[in-house]
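This entry is listed as follows:

___
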Amino acid sequence: MLNSGYEMPVNGLGTYSLHGEECINAVKSALSNGVRLIDTASAYSNDVMCCEL
């Protein structure tokens, strides 16, 4: 539990090594299975693609 009252997701998806369709499919699958912590960053060069789902 965070100080804000929200619970921190216990499991998440890191996208550092994912690009293209592999990234899109992994994020879609994670979201459909209840994952709500998706780690993307502009340094990975996949943040825009993964976040536009």
